[in-house]
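To the wet lab folks,

You asked to see what we're planning to order before we commit. Fair enough. Below is the target structure as tokens, and below that is the sequence we designed to fit it. If anything looks off to you, flag it before the synthesis order goes out.
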């Protein structure tokens, strides 16, 4: 008989929110559960014990990505979110290679290539399958906008851009099934960060500009030191902004950072990057060539990054904070100068 491992108090607290015995289904009750869950992610974090993380993190991510709420339609409300309907996914993966297939295949083989656990658990085939399904979902929506589900296609002409392979990787690693990973990835891209995957990468460039503005506001000495070496975020922070720090190992730290970002807004990755600069502050200020230190960011230290990020939120203007939160998805945003 397999040993049943006891759960920590934190794990029990998470499960009480995620699977209450008599869940209320009113919008107010659901909003209250989400609010309590977000606070628990911030104050306690998802437990590190592997058996607890494997149980809790998939449930947390699906709830934070609103996959418990089927979108409102003119028809009867479906029992489960359309992204989690197996038949829909099955029809997508049965399709022939998409017009983006070769571009996808050129990227997937090097996705988190140095993380052997990721390569063993996920592998390239699953990554390709998820990205191909997303591409066909976008192309089908563009071809038949009347029948397609909201949101609208991000860019019918270019439904895949480099970097999406890295964004899909954490979902495939965390979620227990390929269907759930695909659903979370689609929800993340289409609702949380659509401006990051357009051909012009407008959200990414906005994020980089906001890194400069935030650093200038929060640490003008470090900002001026980097600027004296002609270092702006476009030069040193592009991979970290493009991938929401998923490009920086170790993967378990990436997952903990994503817990926080999914709970409080993926745009806060801008401040997570500024926090990493602040952690390196003394070394950067002492270096006559800071780019040598910034060429490859040090391993993530989420337990240091998140408290700094929260502190920075309190220290900045409302205008700058609003821009940081909104820049991944809001096309009406005018960036501060």
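Sequence we intend to order:
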């Amino acid at each position: 008989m397999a040993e049943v491992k006891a759960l920590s108090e934190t794990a029990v607290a998470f499960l009480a929110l995620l699977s209450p015995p008599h869940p209320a289904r009113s919008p107010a009750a659901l909003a209250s559960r989400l609010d309590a869950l977000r606070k628990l992610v911030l104050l306690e974090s998802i437990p590190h014990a592997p058996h607890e993380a494997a149980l809790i993190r998939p449930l947390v991510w699906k709830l934070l990505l609103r996959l418990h709420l089927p979108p409102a339609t003119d028809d009867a409300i479906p029992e489960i979110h359309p992204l989690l309907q197996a038949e829909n996914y099955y029809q997508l993966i049965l399709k022939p290679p998409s017009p983006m297939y070769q571009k996808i295949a050129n990227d997937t083989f090097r996705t988190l290539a140095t993380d052997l656990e990721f390569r063993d658990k996920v592998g390239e085939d699953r990554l390709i399958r998820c990205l191909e399904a997303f591409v066909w979902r976008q192309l089908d929506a563009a071809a038949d906008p009347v029948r397609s589900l909201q949101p609208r296609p991000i860019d019918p002409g270019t439904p895949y851009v480099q970097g999406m392979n890295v964004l899909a990787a954490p979902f495939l690693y965390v979620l227990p099934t390929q269907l759930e990973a695909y659903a979370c990835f689609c929800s993340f891209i289409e609702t949380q960060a659509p401006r990051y995957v357009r051909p012009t990468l407008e959200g990414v460039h906005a994020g980089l500009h906001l890194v400069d503005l935030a650093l200038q506001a929060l640490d003008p000495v470090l900002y001026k030191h980097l600027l004296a070496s002609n270092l702006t975020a476009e030069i040193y922070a592009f991979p970290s902004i493009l991938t929401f720090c998923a490009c920086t190992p170790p993967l378990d730290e990436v997952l903990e950072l994503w817990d926080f970002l999914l709970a409080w807004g993926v745009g806060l990755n801008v401040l997570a990057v500024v926090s990493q600069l602040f952690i390196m502050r003394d070394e950067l200020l002492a270096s006559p060539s800071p780019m040598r230190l910034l060429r490859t960011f040090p391993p993530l230290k989420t337990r240091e990054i998140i408290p700094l990020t929260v502190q920075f939120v309190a220290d900045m203007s409302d205008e700058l904070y609003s821009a940081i939160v909104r820049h991944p998805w809001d096309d009406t945003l005018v960036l501060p100068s």
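Structural context that might help your review: The two ends are 64 Å apart (CA to CA). The CA atoms of residues 171 and 181 lie 5 Å apart.

Thanks,
Computational group
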